[in-house]
Design goal:
This protein is mainly α and 365 residues long. The protein has helices at 9-21, 25-28, 42-54, 60-64, 72-79, 82-87, 99-121, 124-144, 155-164, 169-197, 203-228, 237-263, 278-289, 305-331, 337-354.
Length: 365
C-alpha cells in the first residue's frame, strides 16, 4: 500500500524542528547499525539512514533505529495553543501537551517513519519485520506511559493528533491514513501470530497465502488509487479511500479468526453468497476501468491506457495467486475443514469483487 497523501502532515510538522534545533549527526542518528558521515545533519541524515536500510535486507532492529530522527519535544511547541489555554482555563489540558501527549507523538513518528521505509520498497517479509519492530516500540511506550491500556496504545496516536488538530480537511485525511496504517499493522501482526501457532505442515502454505494476500492488497490499492478512484477528485477523497482500505484490513482480521476456527476443527462454514463468475469479474474490471463523463474531466485525471492495462494485469495476477495459495492450503486440510475453508474463500472472493462500486461507502466491501 503506497502513501495516500503526497504531503505527510506529521512529517512536515516534525521535520521543521530538526532544522530549527541545529542538531548534530549524533543526536539525529541514535542508532548503532548505521553511522551517518560527519557533516550530514537534519533531513539529509534521515535520507541517508533510510537509503542505507533500503540497500540491504530490512530487519526489525534497523527499523527501530529510526526512533529519534526528529526533535519531537520541540514540535509540541507548534501544537500547543497557549492563548486558547488562557482563554479556557477549565479546558487547558485540551490545548497543552503533557508527558502522555509527548510520548504518543514520539510513537507516532516512530510508527510512521518505520512504515514509510517498508512501504516504499519493502516486500511481505519486510512488512512482517515492521510488525515485530512496532511491537517493541509499543512495549517501550507502555513502560513510559503505564496508564495507557496495553490494547489501546496505538490509538494514542490518533488521540493526540485529534487533540491538536484544527480539523482541516488535509489533517482529517492524514488522520484517516494513520488509522488505516494501524489496521494494516494489526492484520499483519495477526498473520505473524497465526504463523507461530499453525500446525507445522501448514506453515509453508500459510506463508504463501500471506505473501499472496500482501500482493493482492497492494494491487487493489494501486488499481483503486490510479484507475477507478482517480476519475474525479475532491478534498475528502483521500479520507474515503483510507476508510475503504481500513475496512479491508479489519475484514481480514475477522476472516482469519474464522479460518483459525475452521483449521482447529471448532467451526464449519457454509457458503453464504454466490461464486463470482469469470464473466462477472471481467464486467467489473471493464466498468471500473473506464472513466465516466470523460469529456468533462480534467485530462490529468484520466488514466492512460497503459496504466489501466498494467494495473488490471496486476490485479488479475494477484487474484489468481491468492486463490491458488488458498486452494493449496485447503487441499492439505482433512474433511470437513477443506470444504469449510473453500466455502469461506468463495465468499471472500465474492465480496472482494462483486461488491466494489466506484465509490464504496464506509463499512461496505
Amino acid at each position: 500500500m503506497k502513501k495516500l497523501l503526497s504531503v505527510c502532515i506529521l512529517s512536515a510538522l516534525l521535520a521543521a524542528c530538526a532544522s530549527k534545533s541545529g542538531t548534530s549527526a549524533e543526536t539525529v542518528n541514535p542508532r548503532d547499525t548505521v553511522t551517518v558521515p560527519e557533516g550530514i545533519t537534519g533531513e539529509d541524515s534521515i535520507a541517508y539512514i533510510e537509503n542505507t536500510i533500503l540497500q540491504s535486507p530490512i530487519s526489525a532492529e534497523d527499523l527501530l533505529g529510526l526512533e529519534e530522527v526528529h526533535a519531537v519535544e520541540e514540535s509540541l511547541l507548534d501544537f500547543n495553543n497557549k492563548e486558547k489555554a488562557k482563554f479556557y482555563p477549565q479546558d487547558a489540558d485540551k490545548f497543552m501537551a503533557n508527558h502522555r501527549d509527548s510520548a504518543a507523538l514520539r510513537l507516532a513518528n516512530r510508527f510512521m517513519r518505520m512504515y514509510d521505509v517498508v512501504d516504499e520498497n519493502g516486500d511481505a517479509h519486510d512488512k512482517m519485520q515492521w510488525a515485530v519492530a512496532v511491537n517493541t516500540a509499543l512495549d517501550m511506550f507502555r513502560k513510559e506511559v503505564p496508564s495507557v491500556p496495553s490494547d489501546s496504545a496505538l490509538y494514542e496516536i490518533e488521540r493526540v493528533l485529534d487533540k491538536f488538530s484544527s480539523q482541516s480537511q488535509s489533517e482529517m485525511n492524514f488522520q484517516s491514513y494513520i488509522g488505516t496504517t494501524i489496521a494494516y499493522y494489526q492484520a499483519i501482526e495477526a498473520y505473524r501470530k497465526w504463523l507461530m501457532e499453525v500446525p507445522s505442515n501448514l506453515k509453508p502454505l500459510l506463508e504463501q497465502e500471506y505473501v499472496a494476500w500482501i500482493g493482492l492488497h497492494e494491487a487493489r490499492f494501486n488499481f483503486w488509487r490510479d484507475v477507478s478512484y482517480r476519475q474525479e477528485w475532491y478534498s475528502m477523497k483521500p479520507m474515503e479511500l483510507a476508510g475503504y482500505y481500513r475496512n479491508l484490513s479489519e475484514n481480514r482480521l475477522a476472516e482469519m479468526a474464522q479460518e483459525r476456527a475452521i483449521i482447529n476443527g471448532t467451526m464449519t462454514y457454509q457458503q453464504k453468497g454466490r461464486t463470482v463468475t469469470a464473466s462477472q469479474w471481467e464486467q467489473w474490471i471493464a466498468h471500473s476501468s473506464v472513466p465516466m463523463d470523460v469529456e468533462q474531466l480534467d485530462k490529468s485525471l484520466i488514466p492512460s491506457d497503459s496504466l489501466v492495462t498494467d494495473h488490471v494485469t496486476a490485479l488479475k495476477s494477484t487474484f489468481t495467486q491468492w486463490i491458488k495459495a488458498r486452494q493449496a492450503l485447503a487441499a492439505a486440510l482433512p474433511e470437513p475443514q477443506e470444504k469449510s475453508y473453500d466455502n469461506l474463500t468463495a465468499d471472500i472472493h465474492s465480496r472482494m469483487v462483486g461488491r466494489l462500486p466506484q465509490l464504496i461507502h464506509y463499512g461496505e466491501e
